[in-house]
């Protein structure tokens, strides 16, 4: 019996494999593997195996190893002709079945077990030769430092054709743990249903996996059996590492950040979970059985810095460039990683750059020397090196950084935003006369900081923050951006970048700075993009003031703004932060609306007889007087404030908070449908009259905007559109008004941004930003102009803008707000500002 089959049998009836429809014990798996080994025959073969995360692939892979064959794992759906042509495998196993190829036959070293593609190889395939001893040593080391237990259940989030994904299989089967085989992405709800159903304890991820986790609101998921997560496959931003480390601490699981390469079978180093906060940029310490050394490299003058070299029993046998290399024994005793690193005083290793003149970006292997040569052909003498996630270019002479960015981007075949460029008088050189690439990187970083400071200053100005407090890996939402500051930021950012990137409010400063310049188009010189929600605010407040001043009669602006308020509630209040933070944000939102409203009402009570003391409580619709012609004017603020108060109480309940996080669109839609049924069609026969338009019974417009914010797919947007059309039809008894309201909300659903003349976009931004103060004061302003109605409208909007500007200047004179230290699951404190004002008509 094969030692591998014997090992599987020793775990008996312990669960080995779980899928959506299957459950295999180790005894069952051993039987399947034994049968697969026999099917492949006793003659040792080279097998190309197209991998999927399913039982058939696992059994065939293990069967091949059990039979002593050599396996080349390949990703599904790819063209394997290059590998087949070069290596002439004896057997090809793909989606169509097992194919025996005639006329083949190979002389292969007795220790050889696995051939895997290197991450950067292209063209003629260069494969990594791995032995059985490599696989066992790496699996044992991983199982040891992760503390994998027989009760663990790991979901296969990575392909088995990838050394990281395969290492998860090896390490868990080694100790008798279970695998949850799935092709689902962590972005799919079906993945999480399967993970919870099978009591998953762990899964692995590359940096992109963790981006998806944040988008999927991982922080709010209920995963009671989760023990740890692992991350490798590239450097993850330190801030994201810290965010997930914080979440791990709060929820009782661990995060292991790891460093490895195919040439080391999988892993070389790991960062212990208790150091992920303080040492988030480090790769950690060597895995059990391995060791690092630092060897000097020309061009890296910093003491203690050099090429990172790894030694351990998991180091590959060597490379294979063709079938003639398969018979070779081990030719490598140390792995030169090509990474420039240093050993810190605490014993942890840090990677600070690359020795190789190649970098991998956007899936491309870029020859930096060739980029330099191409720039030289264009009259640009430059040094090119890597700068984290960007290509760094330093050129000698009088060059504009934007021109350098575009030239280098064209030469490398990457977006211009992925290039950081600087122009200097002379290129930095070492005393030896060789290029000083670390100095070049520092020059670009310094320039990048200056470029970044421009955006940082913009964020600091709009959000009233200390610029030095702003983390370049933080986004507008992370830094406390809200619906009021969103208007100013979107307009100013569009001017700075030339366009508004999709979901810009969730992009970090670093990502915004890296945005490529928009392609030159003749119309861009006079036009700008404008957020639809901002445009609606501006148009609606003009309609409100103009209709009240009787300059024209176009009603419905207030109900559009109520929908926009719900839209911003969904975007800025219901974010992936802890429940206590959400409640605090909602309280801040209420204050943004209520405080200026009460202050103005107090002033108006002194100088006019328009209002009543009940208005100070924002409760005229509850307490009266009900026969006043003016006291009910502020119905919009009352609806907004009390709606937010009710929702604050609702989401204070842990069960409701969890429900919203798991089913955000469904819950918002339920409020919309329920609101229309109860408040629009009065299904409970409560005798709701036409004055429901101007009371809290108009809540369903707010719910509509909330649902729009959570609708992420076309079917969801269609559903919201249909429900809205049903609700609005016949609601006001005024076809024009209904068409206006429905059209505005439809734009919010289907057209996130609009393009308009730059001057118009700038004016709209200013008017929209001032909409709250315009709404509060216009009742007292336009009557001053009597029959000069147009002048009264202009004056009302001007007063609102002036008050907004004065408040902004006052805030700038106050001490700058300090960002609360991050101790929540995902992001710093998040506020939502005042939703948009409206009018009683």
Automatic annotation (TrEMBL):
The chain crosses the membrane at residues 555-574, 586-607, 634-653, 665-686, 692-709, 745-768, 788-810. Residues 452-504 form the Polyketide synthase-like phosphopantetheine-binding domain. One of its GO terms (molecular function) is long-chain fatty acid-CoA ligase activity. It comes from the Bacteria. Keywords: Ligase, Membrane, Phosphopantetheine, Phosphoprotein, Transmembrane, Transmembrane helix. The keyword ATP-binding does not apply. The keyword Nucleotide-binding does not apply. Its EC number is 6.2.1.3. SUPFAM superfamilies: Acetyl-CoA synthetase-like, ACP-like. It is an enzyme of class 6 (ligase). This is Long-chain-fatty-acid--CoA ligase. It comes from Mycolicibacterium vanbaalenii (Mycobacterium vanbaalenii).
């Amino acid at each position: 019996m094969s030692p591998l089959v014997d090992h599987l049998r020793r775990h008996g009836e312990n669960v080995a494999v779980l899928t959506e429809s299957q459950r295999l014990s180790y005894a069952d798996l051993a039987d399947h593997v034994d049968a697969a080994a026999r099917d492949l025959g006793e003659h040792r073969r080279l097998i190309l195996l197209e991998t999927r995360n399913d039982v058939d692939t696992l059994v065939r892979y293990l069967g091949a190893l059990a039979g002593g064959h050599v396996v080349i794992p390949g990703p599904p759906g790819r063209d394997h002709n290059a590998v087949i042509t070069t290596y002439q495998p004896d057997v090809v196993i793909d989606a169509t079945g097992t194919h025996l190829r005639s006329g083949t036959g190979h002389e292969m070293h007795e220790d050889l077990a696995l051939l895997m593609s290197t991450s950067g190889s292209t063209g003629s395939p260069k494969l990594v030769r791995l032995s059985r001893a490599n696989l066992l040593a790496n699996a044992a080391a991983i199982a040891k430092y992760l503390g994998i237990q027989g009760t663990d259940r790991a979901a296969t989030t990575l392909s088995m054709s990838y050394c990281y994904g395969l290492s998860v299989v090896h390490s868990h089967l080694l100790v008798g743990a279970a695998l949850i085989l799935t092709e689902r992405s962590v972005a799919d709800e079906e993945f999480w249903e399967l993970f919870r159903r099978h009591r998953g304890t762990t899964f692995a991820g590359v940096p992109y996996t963790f981006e998806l986790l944040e988008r999927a609101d991982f922080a709010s998921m209920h995963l009671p059996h989760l023990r740890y997560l692992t991350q490798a496959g590239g450097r993850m931003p330190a801030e994201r590492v810290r965010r997930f480390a914080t979440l791990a601490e709060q929820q009782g699981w661990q995060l292991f950040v790891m460093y490895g390469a195919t040439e080391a079978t999988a892993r070389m180093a790991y960062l212990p979970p208790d150091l992920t906060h303080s040492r988030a940029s480090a790769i950690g310490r060597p895995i059990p059985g391995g060791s690092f050394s630092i060897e000097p490299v020309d061009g890296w003058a910093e003491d203690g810095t050099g090429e990172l070299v790894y030694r351990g029993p998991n180091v590959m046998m060597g490379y294979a460039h063709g079938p003639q290399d398969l018979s070779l024994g081990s030719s490598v005793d140390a792995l030169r990683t090509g990474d420039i690193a240093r050993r810190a005083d605490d014993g942890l290793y840090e990677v600070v750059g690359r020795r190789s003149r190649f970098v991998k970006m956007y899936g491309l292997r870029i020859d930096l020397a060739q980029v330099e040569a191409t720039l030289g052909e264009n009259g640009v003498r430059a040094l090119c090196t890597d700068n984290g996630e960007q290509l760094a270019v330093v050129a000698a002479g009088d060059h504009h950084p934007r021109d350098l960015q575009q030239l280098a981007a064209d030469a490398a075949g990457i977006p211009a935003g992925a290039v950081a460029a600087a122009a200097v008088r002379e290129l930095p050189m070492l005393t030896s006369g060789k290029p000083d690439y670390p100095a070049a990187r520092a020059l670009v970083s310094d320039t990048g900081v200056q470029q970044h400071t421009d955006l940082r200053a913009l964020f600091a100005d709009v959000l009233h923050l200390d610029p030095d407090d702003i983390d370049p890996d933080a986004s507008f939402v992370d830094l406390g951006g809200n619906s009021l500051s969103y208007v100013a930021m979107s307009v100013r950012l569009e001017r700075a970048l030339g366009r508004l990137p999709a979901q810009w409010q969730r992009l970090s400063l670093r990502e915004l700075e890296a945005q490529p310049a928009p392609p030159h188009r003749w119309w861009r010189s006079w036009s700008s993009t404008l957020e639809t929600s901002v445009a609606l605010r501006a148009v609606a407040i003009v309609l409100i003031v103009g209709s009240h001043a009787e300059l024209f009669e176009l009603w419905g602006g207030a109900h559009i703004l109520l929908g926009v308020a719900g839209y911003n509630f969904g975007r800025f209040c219901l974010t992936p932060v802890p429940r206590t933070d959400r409640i605090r944000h909602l309280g801040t939102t209420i204050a943004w609306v209520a405080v200026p409203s009460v202050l103005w009402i107090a002033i108006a009570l002194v100088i006019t007889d328009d209002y009543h003391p009940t208005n100070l409580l924002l409760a005229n619709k509850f307490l009266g007087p009900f026969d006043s012609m003016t006291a009910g004017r502020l119905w919009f603020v009352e609806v907004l404030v009390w709606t937010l108060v009710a929702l604050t109480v609702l989401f204070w309940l842990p069960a409701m908070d969890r429900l919203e996080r798991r089913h955000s669109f469904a819950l918002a839609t339920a409020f919309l449908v329920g609101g229309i049924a109860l408040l629009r069609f009065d299904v409970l026969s409560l005798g709701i009259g036409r004055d429901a338009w101007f009371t809290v019974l108009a809540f369903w417009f707010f719910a509509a905007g909330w649902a729009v914010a959570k609708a992420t797919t076309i079917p969801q947007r269609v559903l919201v559109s249909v429900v809205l059309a049903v609700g609005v039809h016949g609601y006001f008894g005024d076809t024009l008004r209904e068409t206006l309201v429905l059209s505005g909300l439809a734009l919010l659903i289907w057209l996130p941004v609009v393009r308009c003349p730059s001057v118009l976009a700038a004016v709209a931004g200013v008017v929209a930003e001032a909409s709250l103060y315009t709404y509060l004061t216009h009742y007292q302003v336009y009557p001053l102009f009597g029959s000069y109605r147009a002048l009264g409208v202009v004056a009302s909007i001007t007063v609102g803008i002036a008050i907004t500007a004065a408040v902004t200047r006052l805030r700038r004179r106050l001490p700058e707000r300090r960002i609360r230290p991050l101790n929540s699951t995902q992001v710093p404190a998040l506020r939502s500002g005042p939703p948009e004002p409206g009018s009683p008509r």
